[in-house]
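Quick one: structure for this chain?
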Amino acid sequence: MDCRFPIVLSLLVLLSSCTARIQPSRPIVPFVEDVLSSVDNPYHTALKNLGAEPGGEICIIGSEREVHFLSDAFLHADYQDNATASEGGDGLADFAGETITCIIDTVSSPRHLYPDAGREEIEKENIVRLSICAALDRFHLTPFDEVGLGIRHRAKYIVFADTRTAEYGKFDVDTLFSSLNVRIEAVSPLDMMAVDALSNASAGPSRNIGVMCTPGCTVKDLYGQALEKAAASAGIASVKCTVIEVDANDGDAMRHFLDEYIALGGTEAFDAVIVDESGVNTGRLKGELADLISLMNGESLTYRRFAADGFRLVDRGSSTCRHCLASLRKHNLFTHRIAQPYVQTFYAGAGCGSRNGESVIISESYVQNQH
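Got it. Here's what it folds into:
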């Protein structure tokens, strides 16, 4: 027998046991590098080959306002028939029996306070840490709970509530999860809205998309990036994006939006308008637009030409809920429990990431008892 055979076999076994690193297309935060580079890292071991399960939770991570807006959207969603999955509500909650877990990021919020690269790295790392908390089944009862005595179900679907996270954090989470074969989908509402905004079947090979965002918005460039990525995936030749700051709750938002578009020199009809503001009643905005274009006068004709055939308003609540429904159905991840959706809340602990590199989320019951 060739004496080299045992050596070759041992090398093959060693190589097969190593983690298949996904080579990122851009730098990732050192924390992710540390987790991936050492099989002795506790997060490496805990996350490796982790999969989503029907009994898992839908976890929403981000600032308190945005997280609670999305959790409310999930709680009241009724877009489909629960039995047939056909379009149209049936009076039953689409997420009946599901657990919606809110993980409030108290460490890096409010995000707009971090303009320099160093703070951006802190923000990215924190999003990764909170995603790990979502993926695992432990939580801390108090900040003094050293080991995490609380037990919960792991995430089966993760949503990043804040638009900014599409750029600052999600890439690092995707790299970590892909490299360790974590089969839990982590999504950004911005990406979901971009896909929906481009879905106008009546449009030609290009799209013209408007974005209505909160006055003072600091992430305007992210909308165009998300639309370009979605267009490339859908085989759409080109996409034009116009971002306009409008308070969507001022009662005449659609008129102000179109007036600003005209003032900017816009002439092309919109295939869709993304409304990226929390707490907005999209039905009311649709009513505003219908009123603007239904009157038989010169002003109405002016506004009507900016809505293409098949025009639609896209908002983060409905887009995120619909895409989550599609994913749970595709992967057979519904709980099938007969119950109302249940919402629970955790907060990033004051010591999140500071105790021996540990990520900490604390039960809402403790936080409430401190006030």
